């Protein structure tokens, strides 16, 4: 049998001619592997809103490339007037930011792109477009390196043969490579750790079933798909020694917003004494949010619960729905937050400050 190699297409990329954003259409997985080539801002924003590209870091990279493509398109209208260029660029930045509210990586990447342009005043409009292209590619490359480092730190808290439970998809399909929660799983797999991974299906959009169980099995890992309401059962049986999830926004006190259902998993893990880790690049930490109460939680259409994935509606038209896409895991339930600068442990309001210092020192290197 041919050796399994994993998903071989890049989750998010810039085309070789620098003219298009290339993404895997994740709404079609696992059945169909289709690449989309996008250029128009409306299409890029819609792809993010509809979760064709999704997962906090991947959304950030897609938006960074999207803003470069916006710059490319608006440059001819600006002549040599940099001020007009900045005004139009700010509009494009805000338009892309409005695609989804919770994953701070989206805002982080777009603000970083705009700041790069602002600090490059005088380069001329064509020069600024080129600078934005390079910055988008740098953000993409950094994502690979950062996720690998998450994997190296994450692996230090894991043991060979362990059962690991994860929720949603914080895998390669949510980043450029390796994933965040899955980074230690990929690295461990390379080193023969033989993890037994449990993937929650993750209602209502089934990222765990469609994406996590797909990419990990494609990579040849031992992955068992469970429904969300089975997490307690597998922990009660002693099959899970560690829980690791990704994250969309970490507040300064460690409260962490991730895919809906994560906080329930953390509560169950605490009950059974299973360590619960969040794996998040520092681009996911929002020091402006004091606590999880300050994090905006996206609400999505109720039809995602009632109709999507079914040939017939699974609930009456009249039934009301509530469909928050994320919830906040209280910092008291989190064992550690794995970042590319090390693992932060409680009290997070102190340890995350130390991570921030390391982050700033690395920026100034
Ligand atoms: O709605 P999604 O699919 O974008 O939500 C994704 C998640 O919640 C992931 O767990 C999170 O972005 C971590 S990404 C590595």
Supply the key terms.
365 residues; alpha/beta; Four Helix Bundle (Hemerythrin (Met), subunit A); Rossmann fold; seven-stranded mixed β-sheet; four-stranded mixed β-sheet; globular; binds 5-S-methyl-1-O-phosphono-5-thio-D-ribulose
Just give the CATH class of the largest domain.
Alpha Beta
Strand content bin: 5-15%
- The arrangement of helices and strands along the chain is EEEHHHHHEHEHEHEEEHEEHEEEH
CATH architecture of the largest domain: 3-Layer(aba) Sandwich
What name does CATH use for the topology of the largest domain? Rossmann fold
Q: What's the alpha carbon Rg, rounded to whole Å?
A: 20 Å
Low-confidence stretches: none
Q: Overall pLDDT, averaged? A: 97
Number of domains: 2
Class by alpha and beta content: alpha/beta
CATH 4th-level superfamily of the largest domain: Translation initiation factor eif-2b, domain 2
How large is the count of helical segments? Answer: 11
Cα(first) to Cα(last) distance is: 47 Å
Describe this entry's structure for a reader:
- This protein has 365 residues and is an alpha/beta fold.
- It is built from eleven helices and 14 strands.
- The strands form three sheets. A seven-stranded mixed sheet has the order 6-5-4-7-10-13-14. The protein has a four-stranded mixed sheet with strand order 11-8-9-12, covered by helices on one side.
- Strand 13 (336-339) and strand 14 (342-344) form a beta hairpin.
- Helix 2 (56-78) packs antiparallel against helix 5 (125-155) and helix 3 runs antiparallel to helix 4 (104-118).
- It binds 5-S-methyl-1-O-phosphono-5-thio-D-ribulose.
- Residues 51, 54-57, 103, 168, 170, 174-175, 179-180, 207, 245-248, 258-259, 325 line the site of 5-S-methyl-1-O-phosphono-5-thio-D-ribulose (MRU).
